[in-house]
Design a protein that fits this description.
Length: 278
């Protein structure tokens, strides 16, 4: 297991450590599930408020992210452990914190699903954190790719596009995965030439990531290997699921040729003049 992926047992042994901060990343702006029970000592973040610029469709700068982390007592030498509700939101937060330059960020294997399934302790109190100063680190956007780069690479044999969405989204039947309200882009379909790899194929039933050998086998079926020429670009609808593919390939398998198109289908499916495949 990569040092970036930590088990529930690893976290349970370290709860309460002075230089450890656990953060639950929620897909909804209602903290009801968190209030009903969360990993003891965990902070709560609604993904969009914490991981996006406050007004623009953009990520926060390293300076803004350092302020947000500082408000919950995180310093540059704090180990930050993230878990999602659902699982892909933890991977997305991991990616964004990596972009913003936090040095020691970890992902909880199995997220909330495994922690609850193992009947590990849950807290209902709302922890208070003392704000600290966090000097902004340099960011690193090397793993991010934009729409123009993706369009310029269409049809290139050295670019592999992996679509992490549900089969219904990939086939152009829906914009949002079932059973949710179908919204998020003006058109259905996929980016031309994209290869389908539903993100759940990388996960076990308890939301833990599959073994390295299993991951390699799934990826190899899509033509994804560490020695292929060029790069691998993952996308989905909003890039949450795509970041789970990136995490598996980059941090578990050690591949350095993987990037995320964070605009994903919400952007691509609405741009005038950009091609769509069905």
């Amino acid at each position: 297991m990569s040092a970036r992926l930590v088990s529930t047992a690893w976290l349970a042994e370290r709860l309460g450590a002075p230089r450890l901060r656990v953060i639950e990343i929620s897909s909804v702006d209602d903290a009801a599930a968190y209030r009903a029970g969360h990993v003891p000592g965990a902070a709560w973040w609604y993904w969009k408020a914490a991981l996006w610029h406050e007004s623009d469709r953009e990520f926060p700068t390293p300076a803004e992210m350092s302020r947000r982390l500082g408000r919950i007592g995180v310093t540059p030498d704090t180990t930050v452990v993230l878990y999602g509700d659902p699982v892909q939101y933890g991977a997305y937060a991991f990616w964004v914190l990596s972009l913003c330059g936090h040095a020691d960020v970890r992902l909880l294997d199995g997220a909330r699903t495994r922690w609850v399934g193992e009947r590990r302790p849950l807290a209902t109190d709302l922890p208070r954190f003392e704000s600290v100063s966090y000097p902004p680190p340099p960011g690193d956007a090397a793993s991010r790719v934009g729409r123009d780069d993706v369009r310029a690479g269409l049809g290139r044999p050295d670019r592999l596009l992996l679509d992490a969405r549900s089969p219904e989204e990939f086939r152009g039947e829906r914009v949002m995965p079932p059973p949710f309200f179908d919204h998020g882009a003006e058109r259905t379909g996929r980016i031309p030439g994209a290869v389908h790899l539903y993100f759940r194929e990388l996960l076990n039933e308890d939301d833990t990531l599959k073994s390295a050998d299993e991951l390699r086998a799934v990826l190899r079926l899509r033509g994804a290997t560490p020695d292929r020429p060029g790069d691998i670009v993952a996308y989905c609808r909003l890039s949450h699921r795509a970041t789970l593919l990136w995490f598996a390939m980059h941090h578990l398998l050690g591949w350095n040729n993987v990037r995320v198109y964070d605009g994903s289908w919400t952007e691509w499916g609405s741009i005038v003049g950009f091609p769509v495949e069905k």
